[in-house]
Design goal:
The protein has one domain: 2-Layer Sandwich (Gyrase A, domain 2). Helices cover about 35% and strands about 35% of the residues. The protein contains 3 helices and 5 strands; from the N terminus they run αββαβββα. Strands 1-2-4-3-5 form a 5-stranded antiparallel β-sheet. Strand 1 and strand 2 form a beta hairpin. Helix 2 packs across helix 3. The protein starts with a helix and ends in a 6-residue tail after the last helix. The N terminus is likely disordered.
């Protein structure tokens, strides 16, 4: 299970890298924001001892995937802070209002790998977030 999670994370990063590398440098991309990405806030709402709602906000993400990465990084760090090893995403919403993007996700926290496609191995994800300079809790 951990190997499949790592494979998923690396595949996602590789795909993002390929997409960025394939963008012609002499053309403007219409959906790219003009400013640098700005990580504004992380709000953590503990719903039950093993259930947490993470809400993040940011400006100028390149794509909604950047907002999702921010919420996952916050969730991964929080998972470790609470003494767990894994977070399983139950739901996620990404939205934009007047230039402010929000990511709102609910995770279950556990010490055993919960299975499913949207599971975060907290230690691996925190290392990846640190390497990519994505803020955490």
């Amino acid at each position: 299970m951990i190997l499949s999670q790592l494979t998923y994370v690396f595949a996602l990063l590789a795909t993002l890298g390929l997409l960025l590398a394939c963008t012609p440098s002499n053309q403007e991309v219409s959906k790219v924001p003009t400013g640098a990405m700005e990580y504004i806030n992380v709000d953590t709402r503990l719903m039950k001892p093993e259930l947490v709602n993470m809400v993040v906000s940011m400006r100028n993400p390149r794509t909604p995937t950047d907002v999702l990465a921010y919420v996952e990084c916050a969730a991964a760090q929080y998972t470790l802070i609470r003494g767990f090893g894994f977070a399983g995403r139950i739901q996620v919403n990404v939205s934009e209002d007047k230039g402010i993007w929000a990511g709102n996700a609910i995770y279950t926290l556990s010490n055993a790998h919960p299975g499913g496609r949207h599971t975060i191995d907290a230690e691996v994800t925190v290392e990846d977030c640190t390497a990519h300079n994505i803020p955490m809790v």
